[in-house]
């Protein structure tokens, strides 16, 4: 069993996840959980900060993206990165508490691979969802 876990950590160690959220507590918590699971983690506390990092060469495998943020919100960030082909290879998972049908549809239409409601999932479950998406 321990060998199996070690293999999983090695596989994900090569994967870079970019977590974008204006809630510093949640940002730190998710970053810690993903690091513990073997991911290379980058963080940004706003859409504008995230855009700067992307434009300066950050090329993540996965972007875990909050929607409600000051300035540039997650939808705007996603729309801009997709329309400008800034990180076409990155899988985007929206992680927010906006759960209205229209919000979910908008996020998926903009190119998100998944739309997850924060309040309905533990950080460990979020890590599991990202691993499942990467395993597809």
Automatic annotation (TrEMBL):
CDD domains on file: REC_OmpR
Biological processes annotated in GO: phosphorelay signal transduction system
Keywords tagged on the record: Phosphoprotein
Every Response regulatory domain range: 16-133
InterPro entries according to UniProt: Bact_response_regulator, CheY-like_superfamily, Sig_transdc_resp-reg_receiver
The keyword Phosphoprotein is assigned to this record: yes
Entry-linked Pfam families: Response_reg
Highest rank taxon of the organism: Bacteria
PROSITE patterns linked: RESPONSE_REGULATORY
The protein's name: Response regulatory domain-containing protein
Organism annotation: Candidatus Niyogibacteria bacterium RIFCSPLOWO2_01_FULL_45_48
């Amino acid at each position: 069993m321990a060998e199996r876990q070690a293999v999983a950590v090695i596989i994900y160690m090569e994967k870079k996840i970019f977590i974008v959220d204006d809630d510093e507590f949640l940002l730190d918590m998710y970053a810690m959980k993903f690091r513990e699971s073997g991911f290379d983690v980058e963080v940004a506390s706003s859409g504008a900060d995230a855009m700067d990092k992307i434009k300066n060469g950050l090329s993540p495998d996965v972007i875990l993206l909050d929607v409600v943020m000051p300035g540039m919100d997650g939808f705007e960030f996603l729309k801009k990165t997709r329309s400008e082909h800034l990180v076409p290879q990155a899988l985007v998972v929206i992680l927010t508490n906006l759960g209205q049908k229209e919000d979910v549809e908008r996020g998926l239409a903009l190119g998100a691979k998944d739309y997850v409601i924060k309040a309905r999932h533990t950080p460990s479950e979020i890590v599991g969802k990202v691993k499942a998406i990467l395993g597809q």
